[in-house]
């Protein structure tokens, strides 16, 4: 039942990527985007038990800060929606408690960023707490959002249609995203988003390539980009299957 | 009080860059724009989180 899609990476790093998908409808592209934002479960701290908190911030403020720290999400199938992982933190002032001070009982669930300051502790202040992390979706709380600032644009095709008249000043022509020039994919940042830099003295025409979308995906560190996109696609598939089964006679 | 962990608008983790930003741009004399570019904080929603933040722990702590 699965269909093949043509996917091509333009830029690829662990936490940020840009890739081109051909042959999908705008609706499906948006479906993938929404699934990446709201439907991929990630780990985040949900309940905090304070043993001692003599810092300048209230328990609930610290609990929110702890919740927002991204945690690495274990491979699919390792954890269910109801499982919890306990992390503990114990820092005595004068010092700053960092997300890296969280000690996890499970190696698979660790703070993805270690340098996030939780609270600055002065002399005689102490923070000791236990926190339970759970697996949940971006739909329920933004702290479970694996994807950050995800978007897509049409791939744009640029064609040179002729030369500019000799004495005419060329106007700048701003495009953003990725352009296709003779089958070659070029991010617009390469020429400062201005087509007049890339094609000096030429007259160009820009048009959207139908059903080709360039996604820009960034993650908060809880998953890498590839994992996030595949899990998003899987979640669409499982929901589609669920719907199919539900409406069958 | 403490620097927000994430950007309010996009959810990117900005808290981890605060100490370096503070040291270089607020305490030091580097250009905040260059420091932010260097730290990889690209979007203006995330940039304003660091630029406009003031640490208040030192102000509040005497009243504990």
TrEMBL record, chain A:
Where in this chain does the record put each DNA-directed RNA polymerase RpoA/D/Rpb3-type domain? 16-246
One Pfam family name is: RNA_pol_A_bac
Biological process GO annotation list? DNA-templated transcription
- Write down the top EC class of this protein: transferase
EC number, UniProt record: 2.7.7.6
Q: Which InterPro entries match?
A: DNA-dir_RNA_pol_30-40kDasu_CS, DNA-dir_RNA_pol_insert, DNA-dir_RNA_pol_RpoA/D/Rpb3, RBP11-like, RNAP_Rpo3/Rpb3/RPAC1, RNApol_insert_sf, Rpo3/RPB3_RNA_Pol_subunit
Please list the GO terms describing molecular function. DNA binding; DNA-directed RNA polymerase activity; protein dimerization activity
Main location (coarse class): cytoplasm
Cellular location(s): Cytoplasm
* Record bears the keyword Phosphoprotein: no
Reactions accelerated catalytically: RNA(n) + a ribonucleoside 5'-triphosphate = RNA(n+1) + diphosphate
Alphabetically sorted, this entry's keywords are: Cytoplasm, DNA-directed RNA polymerase, Nucleotidyltransferase, Transcription, Transferase
For this protein, the record's SMART domains field holds:
RPOLD
One GO CC term on file: cytoplasm
Quote the subunit structure annotation. Answer: Part of the RNA polymerase complex.
Similarity section: Belongs to the archaeal Rpo3/eukaryotic RPB3 RNA polymerase subunit family.
Matching entries from NCBIfam families are given as:
PRK00783.1 (NF001988)
Which PANTHER family does the UniProt record give? Answer: DNA-DIRECTED RNA POLYMERASE, DNA-DIRECTED RNA POLYMERASE II SUBUNIT RPB3
| Function (record text) | DNA-dependent RNA polymerase (RNAP) catalyzes the transcription of DNA into RNA using the four ribonucleoside triphosphates as substrates.
Listed name of the protein: DNA-directed RNA polymerase subunit Rpo3
Organism the protein comes from? Natronobacterium haloterrestre (Halobiforma haloterrestris)
Question: Per UniProt, what is the name of the gene that codes for the protein in this document?
Answer: rpo3
UniProtKB/TrEMBL annotation, chain B:
Q: How is the cofactor bound?
A: Binds 1 zinc ion.
> What InterPro entries does the annotation carry?
RNA_pol_su_RPB10, RNA_pol_suN_Zn-BS, RPABC5/Rpb10
Pfam families linked: RNA_pol_N
This entry's Enzyme Commission designation comes to 2.7.7.6
Q: Which GO terms describe its molecular function?
A: DNA binding; DNA-directed RNA polymerase activity; zinc ion binding
What is this enzyme's class at the first EC digit? transferase
Q: How does it assemble?
A: Part of the RNA polymerase complex.
Similarity comment: Belongs to the archaeal Rpo10/eukaryotic RPB10 RNA polymerase subunit family.
**Protein's name according to its UniProt entry:** DNA-directed RNA polymerase subunit Rpo10
